[in-house]
Design brief:
This protein is an alpha/beta fold. The protein contains 23 helices and 10 strands. The chain has helices at residues 2-11, 15-32, 34-48, 53-101, 104-109, 112-119, 121-154, 156-163, 165-203, 205-210, 214-266, 272-314, 373-380, 403-409, 424-428, 437-446, 450-454, 473-486, 503-516, 529-532, 552-558, 561-568, 588-600, and strands at 335-343, 348-357, 362-366, 388-393, 396-397, 410-413, 491-495, 521-526, 537-542, 545-550. It binds adenosine-5'-triphosphate and magnesium ion.
Length: 601
C-alpha cells in the first residue's frame, strides 16, 4: 500500500490521462460483452427462430464492437505507456539527483553494482506495473464484475454459484503474494550482488590480469550466478505451486456453469441462446481469475523494487547544509583546526588536531601511510564532519558555510585521481566548464603537463579512457593538478599529487606554484620531505596525531621523529616506522593549548 502511495505522488501529474485511460478501458470492457450477446441473439433469433434478416444487423454490430474494442485498447495502451515512461523519467531524475547529493560516506558503503541495478532492473519493474499491470488489473476487475453482474441478472442462481469460487481464488492469490514477496526481495538482492561482481570485475580488470586471478573471478561469478539461479528457481517453484490451484479454481467455474446452466436450460428457465451468451460471458469471469496470479507476481516484484528505490530516495546525506550563515562569498583562505577528533566508524583516525594556516600559507602534511593525512584535508572541504572540535575557514565554522561555497573556494587534487572518459581538455576544465582553451593551456603548463599533452595524437582533444586508462600515473597526477589549479581557489589541496612525478618535475611545479599561486593557502600532502621542505608550516602526523610541527629547520633542530626520518629513511615517510606516542599527548588540556602555539608558527 505504501508503495502505491509513493507511486501515487509521481502519477498525480497525469491524473487526467489516467482517467481518460480508465474511461477507454470501461468502453473496451463494455464492448467485449457485445460479442456473447450477439452470439446469443444469433442462436435464438436466426438459428432457432429463422429470422435470417437480422443476421446482417447482428454481424454489423459484432464487427463494429470488435473495431471499437481494438481502437480503445490501442489508445489506452499508448496513453499508459506515455504515463509510465514519463513517470520513470522523473523517478530516474530524482534518484540521480539524490546520488549527486549523497556524500563520501554513502559511496564508500554502497556497491556500485547495487546502485546500477536500482537505476535499471528495479526501474523496469516499476515501469511494468504502470504501463500494463495497473490498466490490465482495472480491466480485469471491470470485466469480472460486469460478467458476474450479467450472470446475476440472467440467473441469480447461476451468478451465486459462480461467485462461490471467488473466495477460493482470493485466498490462493493472497497466500501466493505473502510467500512470494520475501522471495522477490531475495532475488533482487542476489541480482544486485551479481551486478556488483560484474562491475567490479570490469573496473578492476587490470588487477585481475596482473595477478592472474581470472579463474578466481570466474569462480566468484559462478557462485553468485548459481545463487541467482537457485533463487529464481525457488521463485518459479512458488509460482508453479500456486498457479495450478488458482487455475483449478478458475476452471471449476466452467464445471459449475455447465452443471447449473445446463440444468436451467433443460428445465427451460433459460433459452439455448441465453445459454450460449452466458457461455461467452463465462470467459469474462474466468480469465480475470486466471490472471490474478500474474498480477500478484508483478505487483510483488514492483513492491520489492520500490522498497529499494524508496530507501535510496530517503537516504539523507550525512553532511547537511543547515545553519548556513555564509553563502556565495569569496573566502580568503584562513584555515583553523581546533581540537579536531574524527573517526570513520569506531576507530579514531584524527586526534586533537590543532593548527592555523593563514591566507597564502603553504602547509606541508607529512607522515607514514594511514596516519590520517587525507582524512585531515577531507574535513576542510567538508566531505566529512569531525566528531569533536571544529574546522574553520576565515574563522567561520565550516558547518555554517554553504557546502557549495566551500567547494567553490577549495580546490583539491585528490589522491585517488578520477578522470572521465572524455578529452584531456574537458577533464582539466571539469570544475570550470566555461574556461577558455588558453586558460586550460596556462594551468597545464603550470602543472608541467602541457609538454606531454601536445605530444599526444590529438593533443588536448585526446580522449582518455575510463578512469584515465592510457595515461601514466605521473601524467594523471599532472592533469589532476591542472584541473585543481584552473578553479582559482582560495585554498588549494594537493593530496600526494606529485608522488609519481620525478623530483626534477616536482621541483619545477613547486617553483611555478610559488610564483603564480602564492596567494593561495596551499596544503601539500606528501611522504617525501623534499616535497614539503619549503612549507611555512609542516605538520608531522602519526596515527592521527600531529606529533611535531614547525618549519623544516625548526623540525630538524628538534631532533625528533622528523629529524630521524630525514636522517635515516632518506627523507621518505613511506618507509618510516610509526612514531610511538607517549601518554603526554593524551593530555587534552595540553593539546588544546597547542592551537595557539601552532597558530603563531
Ligand atoms: N572511508 C574510510 N572508511 C573507514 N576507514 C578509513 C576510510 N578512509 C581511510 N580510513 C582509515 O583511516 C586511516 C587514515 O587514512 P588516510 O587515508 O587519512 O591516511 P593517509 O595518511 O592519507 O595515508 P596515505 O599516505 O596512504 O594516503 C587509515 O587507518 C585508514 O584505514
Ligand atoms: Mg592519503
Amino acid at each position: 500500500m505504501e508503495a502505491l502511495r509513493w507511486l501515487g505522488g509521481y502519477i498525480k501529474k497525469y491524473t487526467f490521462i489516467i482517467i481518460l485511460a480508465a474511461v477507454l478501458t470501461l468502453i473496451h470492457v463494455t464492448v467485449i460483452f457485445i460479442s456473447p450477446y450477439m452470439s446469443g441473439f444469433i442462436v435464438d433469433d436466426v438459428i432457432v427462430n429463422g429470422k435470417y434478416a437480422l443476421l446482417g444487423k447482428y454481424l454489423t454490430i459484432l464487427l463494429a464492437s470488435v473495431a471499437v474494442k481494438e481502437i480503445t485498447w490501442y489508445i489506452r495502451q499508448n496513453l499508459m505507456e506515455h504515463v509510465s515512461q514519463s513517470v520513470i523519467k522523473n523517478l530516474r531524475c530524482d534518484l540521480y539527483e539524490k546520488l549527486q547529493r549523497l556524500d563520501f560516506k554513502f559511496f564508500v558503503e554502497t556497491r556500485t553494482g547495487d546502485l546500477m541495478s536500482r537505476m535499471t532492473g528495479d526501474m523496469d519493474a516499476v515501469r511494468l506495473v504502470m504501463a500494463s499491470t495497473m490498466a490490465n488489473l482495472f480491466q480485469m476487475i471491470c470485466l469480472g464484475a460486469i460478467g458476474l453482474a450479467t450472470m446475476f441478472l440472467a440467473s441469480p442462481i447461476l451468478g451465486l454459484s459462480l461467485l462461490a469460487i471467488v473466495p477460493f481464488i482470493g485466498v490462493f492469490a493472497f497466500k501466493y503474494s505473502r510467500v512470494s514477496k520475501p522471495q522477490f526481495l531475495k532475488v533482487r538482492e542476489v541480482l544486485s550482488r551479481l551486478n556488483s561482481v560484474v562491475q567490479e570485475n570490469i573496473s578492476g580488470n587490470r588487477a585481475v590480469k596482473a595477478f592472474s586471478r581470472e579463474q578466481f573471478e570466474i569462480d566468484k561469478f559462478e557462485k553468485v550466478n548459481n545463487e541467482y539461479r537457485t533463487e529464481q528457481l525457488e521463485n518459479v517453484a512458488i509460482w508453479n505451486k500456486y498457479v495450478p490451484l488458482i487455475d483449478f479454481a478458475a476452471a471449476m467455474t466452467n464445471v459449475i456453469f455447465i452443471f447449473v446452466g445446463g440444468a436451467l436450460a433443460i428445465a427451460g428457465k433459460i433459452s439455448i441462446g441465453q445459454f450460449t451468451m452466458m457461455n461467452g460471458i463465462l470467459w469474462c469471469i474466468v480469465s480475470p481469475m486466471q490472471m490474478i496470479g500474474g498480477f500478484a507476481n508483478q505487483i510483488q516484484q514492483f513492491v520489492a523494487s520500490s522498497v529499494k528505490m524508496r530507501t535510496l530516495l530517503d537516504t539523507e546525506p550525512a553532511i547537511k547544509n543547515e545553519k548556513v550563515t555564509v553563502d556565495h562569498v569569496k573566502l580568503k583562505g584562513k584555515v583553523t583546526f581546533k581540537n579536531v577528533i574524527f573517526s570513520y566508524d569506531d576507530e579514531r583516525v584524527l586526534k586533537y588536531v590543532n593548527f592555523v594556516a593563514n591566507p597564502g600559507d603553504t602547509i606541508g602534511i607529512i607522515g607514514p601511510t594511514g596516519s590520517g593525512k587525507s582524512s585531515l584535508v577531507n574535513l576542510i572541504s567538508r566531505f566529512y564532519d569531525p566528531d569533536n572540535g571544529a574546522v574553520y575557514i576565515d574563522d567561520i565554522n565550516v558547518k555554517n558555510i554553504d557546502v557549495t561555497t566551500i567547494r567553490q573556494n577549495v580546490s583539491m587534487a585528490m589522491q585517488d585521481i578520477f578522470l572521465f572518459s572524455d578529452t584531456i581538455e574537458a577533464n582539466i576544465a571539469y570544475g570550470v566548464p566555461d574556461a577558455t582553451h588558453e586558460d586550460v593551456v596556462r594551468v597545464a603548463k603550470a602543472a608541467d603537463a602541457h609538454e606531454f599533452i601536445i605530444k599526444m595524437p590529438e593533443g588536448y582533444d585526446t580522449i582518455v579512457g575510463e578512469r584515465g586508462v592510457g595515461l601514466s600515473g605521473g601524467q594523471k597526477q599532472r592533469i589532476a593538478l591542472a584541473r585543481a589549479l584552473l578553479k582559482d581557489p582560495a585554498i588549494l589541496i594537493l593530496d600526494d599529487t606529485t608522488s609519481a612525478v620525478d623530483m626534477e618535475t616536482e621541483y619545477s611545479i613547486q617553483e611555478t606554484l610559488k610564483k603564480s599561486y602564492s596567494n593561495k593557502t596551499t596544503f601539500i600532502i606528501a611522504h617525501r620531505i623534499s616535497s614539503v621542505k619549503n612549507a611555512d608550516l609542516i605538520l608531522v602526523l602519526s596515527k592521527g596525531r600531529v606529533i611535531e610541527w614547525g618549519t623544516h629547520d625548526v623540525l630538524l633542530s628538534k631532533k625528533g621523529y622528523y629529524y630521524e626520518v630525514y636522517e635515516n629513511q632518506f627523507g621518505d615517510f613511506n618507509n618510516a616506522p610509526d612514531f610511538e606516542i607517549d601518554n603526554y599527548y593524551e593530555d587534552e588540556q595540553f593539546l588544546e593549548r597547542q592551537v595557539y602555539r601552532n597558530g603563531k608558527k
